[in-house]
Amino acid sequence: MSNLKSFFGGRTLAEITPRLIVEYKNRRYAAGLKPASINRELANLKKAFNLAVREWEWCSENPVSRVSMERENNKRDRWLSVEEEARLLQNCAGWLHDLVTFALHTGMRMGEILELSWRGVDFTRRTVTVFRSKNGERRTIPVNQTVLAVLRKKAKVRSLQTDLVFCSKVFTRLESGHLRRSFRLALQKSRIEDFHFHDLRHTFATRLVQAGVDIYKVQRLLGHRSPIMTQRYAHHYPESLRDGVEILDRAAGISTNLAQSTGSPAVLHV
Asked: Which of 5, 147, 148, 198 has the fewest CB atoms within 10 Å, i.e. the most exposed one?
């Protein structure tokens, strides 16, 4: 929001035209931003104008609606191999080891993990609850024994000073910047290249699909609103398509048996 304010601040609503918004996009590209980041900034500007038009009646139209959004390339498909995971965890400090293990086994986003509170942990039901996800929705995630072990370990040193599950040594909120720096250092020590913290989420999803878990279940675990976002992982398990063609084998077998028993050819309706 600060970038929007520094560029558009001091102008009247009438002065903010589609041409000016395109100029803003060009400047953000020059600053090194990626299309996805630019689109998020434009979405904030668009939301502000929607309020100005619909609720406050400060202007009659939204100029952002006349500016095309940037095409995003979200098809990154990087995940950890089992051998890479072992090297990475070996080079993680204790607190980071727990956090990375938690991410690999829940598929939660960095922000969701850093905001996870003990009131969202249910040892009886074996679930953790994200009260506000990226899309603003609440989601409850079942956890496995590996995650339960991490949570029980954290619970033993839990402090009354914070309700956060993952916090600093002085029980303050972990900064995402500090986490990223520590994660990059562990990657360097492990000789793992082209990998980001968010790829732990990709690793979680990829491994589920490779194990034959239904795409719909993966979608629900990741908290995706649309199955299209989850479909990117489908190619990791081509064997899931085999069931479809094997149905024809079974149908053909039934047809043959029927023909032999009746002495007349059977017709297969597909």
From this structure: 5
More confident residue, 70 or 241: 70
Residue pair 126/225 in contact by the 8 Å Cβ criterion? no
Instruction: Please tell me the predicted confidence (pLDDT) of residue 267.
Output: 46
Q: What's the token pair of residue 36?
A: 């996805």
- DSSP characters over 175-215: PHHHHHHHHHHHHHHHT--S--TTHHHHHHHHHHHHTT--H
In angstroms, the CA 212 to CA 214 distance is: 6
Q: Which of 236, 181, 205 is nearest to 103 (CA)?
A: 205
Q: Which amino acid is at 79?
A: W
Q: Which two tokens stand for residue 105?
A: 């086994």
Q: What is the pLDDT of residues 208-230, one digit of tens each?
A: 998 989 889 999 999 988 888 88
Per-residue confidence (pLDDT) for residue 34, from 0 to 100 = 83
* Three-state secondary-structure class, residue 242: helix
Which residue, among 49, 44, 4, has the nearest Cα to 23 in the 3D structure? Answer: 4
Phi, then psi, of 99 in degrees rounded to 5? -70, -45
Q: How far apart are CA 41 and CA 25, in angstroms?
A: 9
The continuous run of DSSP H or E covering 122 comes out as strand 121-122
Decide if 74 contacts 57 (C-beta within 8 A). Answer: no
Superfamily of structural domain 82-236:
Intergrase catalytic core (1.10.443.10)
Tokens of residue 145, six digits: 């024994």
Q: Are 54 and 9 in contact (CB under 8 A)?
A: no
* Mean pLDDT score, 189-193: 96
> Where along the chain do its domains lie?
2-66, 82-236, 237-270
Q: Confidence band (pLDDT; 50, 70, 90) for 257? A: low
**Among candidate residues 201, 205, 211, 193, the one with its CA nearest the CA of residue 102:** 201
